[in-house]
Fold this protein.
Amino acid sequence: MILENSDERCSLARQVRCCEQRWFQETREQATAGDLASMLLAAEMLCHSYGCPHSRYERFREALHFLRLYLVRRYGTANLLQLEVLAQSGASADETLPRALFLYRQARIELAGLETP
């Protein structure tokens, strides 16, 4: 692959990083615009540092932000106890609630272990 405005070839690893960053930016824009699926995907990308150039603290803060928005818009609450009961009762037919709760817990644990900048 040849970089834009350049006569040099770049490594495959660099190409992949560029694609990941572009995909993250597109997903973040869609999440910010209110797309539910993108909110969950952006949070997952942030938790796993996929295409995100942020510090760990910033990544997990932003992941929690998108997860809270997702949970409130999708399920009407960000109360973890209510959401856990909903997930365990089987009232939620989709598989996104357990995934969102897992990511939310993971991000909170990671964020609690980091010092504020």
